[in-house]
Amino acid sequence: MSTEQPQVVDGDPTVPEQGAPPTDGATAAETSRAEPPKAQPTKAAPSKAEPTEAKPTTAEPTAAEPSKAEPAEAGAAAKAGAAETEPAKAEPTEAGAAEAESPKPEPAKSEPDRAGAAGDKTAGDKAGEGGAGETAQVKEAQAAPRDGDTKVEEIKVKEEPPRDPFASFAPEPERPPTRRQRVGRAIGRFLIHEWTLASLGSLALAVLMTWPTLRYPLHTLPQDFQDPALQAWQMAWSGHILLSDPSQLWDSNTFFPERLSFAFSDTLLGYAPAGMIGEGPAAAILRYNIIFVLAHALATFGAYALVRQLGAGRTGAIVAGAAYTYAPWMLAQAGHLHIVSNGGIPLALAMLARGHGWSLTHGFRPERRHAGWAFAGWLVAAWQITLGFGIGLVFAYVLGLVTLVTVAIRLGRRVRHWRVRRPWGTRLVIADLIGGLVFAATGALLSLVYFEVAYQHPEATRRVQDLEAYSPPPSGFFTAPPESLIWGDLHESVRNGMRWPAEMTVLPGYVLYALALAGIFFSVWKLRHRLLLLAGVLVTAILAMGPNFFGGTYTYLPLFNHLPGWDGLRTPGRLMLWTTLLLGILAAGTVSALVRRVNDIAAIRVTGRPGVLLRLVTLVPLLLVLVEGLNTTPHPVVPQQPEVMRTDPGPIVVLPFNRTYEQPVMLWSTTRFQPVVNGGSGFTPVRQERTREAARTFPDQASVDYLRELGVKTVVLLRDSLDGTPWQAAVDMPVDTLGIRREEIGNTIVYHL
């Protein structure tokens, strides 16, 4: 047995020196079994406990449980040594590593301390319990090494904390969600998201505010069955020809034998995917009514998104969206789907502002830039152009002006702050370049066709006299159309003094006027922004008056005479679209400031939230705007399609040949899309005018010869529509000498030339 003295570390139980031989006759095999496994040095357990002196009484056991890790045949002394010093956490061959992990020993020990350590070792040798220098605590805890299992088990029981009797009443631990639960939560978050609610709310509002459009969607059209029938045919034709022969897109089946007849009016080409679904007049009518409602929903959603991006609150954005879509003057445009389909304008502006990190309340924030949103904004703008140049041309010029101003401002700031490089970022610049090229290419390709039509048909060019017939007077800004439920009858006397009330009654709403006026003084927008919005309202309103504002010499006419394509616009009053949008932004600032004030008042209440009355106050502007937008729009039944239009291959001319039935004939042709001479648009081609004059005497030899020379094979007379027309007597006229064949099919009289 070795007599080498052990080390003493701050009163802790002594630790045998590294490399000491086993004591009390322990064999090498037992020592190797008791030797703990080698591991990387970690913090030793003795450093966590207060050092204690050796006492004859039993001490509290340490946190270590060597009985679980040591083999059953290992000596109790090795177990006690592992419990006190945890030699498994230090390399057994490097004493310095063990010393580094244990608390730093004092530099010197007094002689009594050394004597006490020697006494402990002697007692341990007599008891035969393991390593040299064990303390009395370890010897008492392991007095019977052969019965160590029972002793250690008793120590384990003492180590366990007392059980809490109330643990049984504790809530169950939250279980991780399953895949189905995660999917359900994701769907729930999507359904309650702001933009989901805004989309659904816009759609529900559109159904209610355009009612009864969807009451009989297969048989009726809003406003009348002329222009809506034309636009229903446009969607059907674009979908049909893109599936069958895209090269013939512009040479439609109407206005036979004219070329490029599809470009005689706004094409609604962006709705071509909808035109690919279904066939025949019933499908075309249903398609039109659905798109009509969706166009209102998109306008509301687009204006809401724009105002939210600019920095207004939700309530203010809802008011702006409703005022923009359901302004009283828009009720007169219910028969013009290309005017109603204006939601892409504010939506594209909202996306572009979001992509460039810009808002009215915060200005330009580079950290909010997002190239994807900017590119999407350009795509939406390009889609809006495809719906027609009636409002798309002005939108293109506005977008170009905004681009030039933005670039000029950014370049100016870069010159002043030359250290700031790439204010937009590379990705955003690339997105703007590609998106801008897509937008410009779309507009250029479409405009080429319209320029060709204007060249071939000089009669399509607008004159200043035409502008005067469609430009509203100053009183028109306070006059509602007859379709307004609230103001229609009250303003009837004023409308009677107008030459074209449908385009001259441009009231955006008295409630909108009041909210916008209040927004100049009480708003969330900054003062300079309010003044800029006010200036925009005045400029667009003056331009909407056309030549009626001091002759338009310095306002509308310079644009009409010098800007490409501007001379194709005959209705300056439709510029009220921009006036209404700017008024809505001003009104949103007022309503948002009102909501903030209500929240401030609610903050000092006991409940800390606004009550019912305070909430109703914030909704009053919205209710007033919606009430002012209620309509009495008629929904006439579309005339029934003649049976011959479903079977005859054409070319066909339908009589009476006048403006009343031109568009319905176009709609009837959606079954076979056979060539028809009939057609309606914003102008009348010279050849069609000659055909109308020649057909007034049908059936006679001159008219038959003219129609044969034109290429017409079939003439159809609508028996119920001939009263008061030149063809009223044609029903009983003999045709035997004309070399044509006559037959009656249903309610029509058909002549085969």
TrEMBL record:
Residues 1-180 are annotated as: Disordered. Residues 54-66, 72-85 have a biased composition (Low complexity). The chain crosses the membrane at residues 190-211, 285-307, 395-412, 424-451, 507-525, 532-555, 575-595. Keywords: Membrane, Transmembrane, Transmembrane helix. Residues 101-114, 146-163 have a biased composition (Basic and acidic residues). This is Glycosyltransferase RgtA/B/C/D-like domain-containing protein. It comes from Phytohabitans maris.
